[in-house]
Amino acid sequence: METLEFVIYPDGRVQEKVTGIIGASCAEVTAAIEAQLGQVLTHEPSSEYFATIVQQSNVVNTQTTFSDW
After folding, report:
1. Cα 14–3–20 angle (5° rounding)?
2. How many domains would you assign to the chain?
3. What is the reported pLDDT for 56?
4. Which of 13, 17, 29, 56 is disulfide-compatible with 5, CB 3.0–4.6 A?
5. Cα separation of 40 and 8, whole Å?
6. Is the CA virtual torsion 45, 41, 19, 11 positive or negative?
7. Is residue 44 in a domain?
8. What string of DSSP letters covers 5-62?
9. Residue 67, domain member (yes or no)
10. CA–CA distance from 30 to each of 4, 16, 38 (Å)?
């Protein structure tokens, strides 16, 4: 499940936490929100940011040979 969590501090700072999005695409999801919020002071990528999606293929190659005995 993809979630965006925001914590707004009394001094106006906003902390944003993204979970459930694999890879750097989380930056695309949050870009418009960050543009409206103002200056971004820091980014702290999570382990999900550095993860890669593994795709498994269901293609099986078979080869049958017959002997000429």
Report:
1. 120
2. 1
3. 65
4. 17
5. 14
6. positive
7. yes
8. EEEE-TTS-EEEEEES--STHHHHHHHHHHHHH---------HHHH------------
9. no
10. 9, 9, 12
